[in-house]
Write a structure and sequence with these properties.
The structure is a homodimer of 213-residue chains. By secondary structure, chain A is of the alpha/beta class. Chain A is built from 9 helices and 10 strands. Chain A has 2 domains: 69 residues, Arc Repressor Mutant, subunit A; 113 residues, Rossmann fold (3-Layer(aba) Sandwich), CATH 3.40.50. Chain A binds a DNA duplex (24 and 24 nucleotides) through helix 3 and strand 2. Chains A, B: Its main location: cytoplasm.
Chain lengths: 213, 213
DNA sequence: TAGATTGTTAATCGATTAACAATC
DNA sequence: TAGATTGTTAATCGATTAACAATC
């Protein structure tokens, strides 16, 4: 079996290309070159071609890529040719924002259950969904066939939440709590830390100032 | 002048180490080794030492690092020895969540102005702040000496927003809109795309399934 | 001194880029 | 055919890791 290891950065860029192609398609553009994609998302043309080359040959030499086709291919590669039901824990402000975030729905993600252990939140509605107590999670996972969970609780509660998610069969976790979580082998996790990139900015601003000295 | 280029990944990890050290400090732990930091945040011990080595010698051979000191050093390196006023554009659900996000305040970030061009939102209060029309931005930037702006508007509005931010003197942008933005030379930008990491998860889940075939 | 752990160098690994043959 | 652009290889670049002397 040919085990090609795809760099995570390639998958990240594929996601970005994919959304850029959707925009071109909405604008009625039918053909695009690696150079135009590169220009549109801020990478090099060679990078675009190399990233695509991990998965096949999608273009026509001398011509470029068919926008609609390449859009479909990239989405399929990312697993976005299907809908993904999501389980969300944490009905605070961040949870609320995620529930109503358009960027999820437009890519086939749908939050199908919102959970919290705060009695003052349980029973309230977020968008169309009633906030449920944690004990209801198994049944919601079962009903929708959910495989992915989102953690939007404070750091100190996060480990307990993912343990519960894993116990109930979720296979992948998107974690918004700024803390490293321990998970069993085979469970995928990615962290979105809202302030890390802000700290990269302050680092760079400080560095820039320092160079004037 | 010794121009050492610090990898962005190093700065990212520094931010993570820094928060881990804060937690150790809160728990009353006074000394820590590179191995313990590595364990706590999920990287290699050599990586921890190498990352720190870009900036100086902070440890004691045979002993490790003083938690409080290293915490202060890492925060200082990241520019977090000062407070950072932030300008936020977009008073939707995401904007609301960012305004109330504890993870910002605990690192010295403070949103000092929230702006929107939606007349139904202007005048409303988010936390302590009144949502202001865009025209008020120059005066708020001036008043607080803000240098960083956060974009939490829909993709199609984002370019116009950053243009306006840059015109009014902001030097760094944290962009939550899933679109590549064009900025003049010298302006720092970082994107936080809420769904990219979700798509890495779906990619990996698909890949895992494929390997069973 | 013996044990532990840093700081740093050199080796390894992997990702990006440049270049060009293939081909529309 | 001439011009354009892909797919792919080889070269370059940069980041991570292993290893160990320094030293507490």
């Amino acid at each position: 079996m040919k085990t090609l290891r795809v760099p995570e950065a390639t998958v990240t860029r594929l996601s970005v290309y994919s959304r850029f192609l959707e925009r071109l398609d909405r604008n009625g553009i039918t053909t695009v070159s690696s150079g135009e994609i590169a220009e549109g998302v801020g990478v090099s043309p060679a990078q675009v071609r190399k990233d695509l080359a991990y998965f096949g040959e999608f273009g026509t030499r001398g011509v470029g890529y068919n926008v609609k086709d390449l859009m479909r291919y990239t989405k399929k590669i990312l697993g976005l040719d299907q809908n993904w039901p999501l389980i969300l824990v944490g009905a605070g402000n961040l949870g609320y924002a995620l529930c109503t975030y358009k960027g999820f729905n437009s890519r086939g993600f749908q939050i199908v259950g919102v959970f919290d252990n705060d009695l003052t939140k349980i029973g309230k509605k977020i968008a169309e969904l009633e906030v449920l107590p944690m004990e209801k999670m198994p049944e919601v996972i079962e009903k929708h066939g959910a495989r992915i969970g989102i953690v939007a609780v404070p750091p100190r509660a996060a480990q307990e939440v993912v343990d519960y998610m894993v116990k109930n069969g979720l296979e992948a976790i998107l974690n918004f709590a700024p803390v490293a979580l321990n998970l069993p082998e085979g469970i995928e996790i990615r962290n979105v830390d809202l302030s890390v990139k802000l700290e990269i900015l302050t680092f760079n601003l400080g560095f820039k100032s320092a160079q004037h000295l």
